[in-house]
Sequence to fold (80 residues):
Amino acid sequence: MAEKKSADFEKSLERLEQLVGEMESGQLTLEEMIKHFEEGSGLVKSCTKKLNEVEQKIEKLVKKDGELSTEPFGIKEQPE
Fold:
């Protein structure tokens, strides 16, 4: 199931990049631009939701001094 979610995220991201590229080309009609924007907005919302879910899982998996704790993702402790 996790692989399917990852694949869905990757496909959504690829489609979003495709939409942006087409919009930046300057060759779309106004109606096409609006459709691309609407689809892209939905993809951004979906990808953001998935990233937030992953961040919550990572926070749950952080282990410190033998006990589970949470800490912000991506920040490493600096040695003293």
Summary: The chain has a mean pLDDT of 83. The chain has one domain: 2-68.
